Amino acid sequence: MHRLFLQFDRPTWALLFLLACGLLLAAPGYSQTSPVKTGTVERIKVHGKGLEGNLAGDSPDRDVSVYLPPSYKTDKKRRYPVVYFLHGFTDSDDKWYGLTKHWINLPAVVDKTLAEGKTAEFIIVTPNAYNRYFGSMYSNSVTIGNWEDFVADELVAYIDKNYRTLPQASSRGLAGHSMGGYGTIRIGQKHPEIFSSLYLLSPCCMVPTMNAPANPEMAAKMENVKTLAELEKADFFTKAMFASAASWSPNPTNAPFYLDLPVKEGQPQSMVMAKWAANAPLATLDQYIDNIRQLHALAFDAGSKDASIAATNKVLDGLLTNYKIPHTYEEYEGDHINRIAERIEQKMLPFFTANLSMEPVKIGKKR
Question: Is 207 left (phi over 0), alpha (psi -120 to 50) or beta?
């Protein structure tokens, strides 16, 4: 047997070695320098016809943050499912989208999840619901404007018109954190023809209450707020009471706030509390069971240290179980915010990947 030996001088061997390394680094799976593909964020204005003339004086032209996935700019013929994500009380869209420093950066979480292959690509849309009362509760009210309608109708119509979406319920998801989780079930249970899948992260405000604040000091704090400047300086609880009143017990003749608080001159206001209870999803769920049955998927979670919200989640789980409605419910070790980024990455985005349609649904075909 004859063997052929190739002989090269030292400089030639060095050149061949460098060429081989270059080929390895250029090969798929070996790249050490190629950047991770990331999505882009646009902040746009969307006019809300139903927000016009609100007594709070907030602009009907709302900031909206839109996350476009990495392939959106290059794959011009592709259409995408959309996740509408609702932020919490005292938050705003710019905080969640990395435009203002905050405890979470949603686009960074999505990019990381995409890089790890845990999620499909979505357009993600978040309207700025921060207003004079620090949050809209995503409810309809003459005081704050018709936020429920803005999200379900006007915002969806605008996004479908101006972006390459899959304009069908089976390709739309609705999700939110805290007040946004409340908004998700409030809006989602009424509109299965618009949103097919819902994910609630630590949803607040779920349980009806017929009792005004029992603590006289808390009641006095509310009633002592007479101006917008004083409301700005108020504690979180007082702000939440005003936001709830503006959303659920508006009063067009009661300036300057145009709302009725649950306490007046130190006395509980039973009618006000009845109105608030009527806006609690756990009180209204029975009336929307047929709508909820039409949803393709429903999931919700909360941290075990977020005790009151975890408790209401258990009640929601029980109600849905009684009606034999499929759903996913989880209580994890955590508080109201410390693991939300992780939950979005490991639970919410995979949930929508599994449940939203990535292709147009043929006419006449039901999912």
Answer: beta
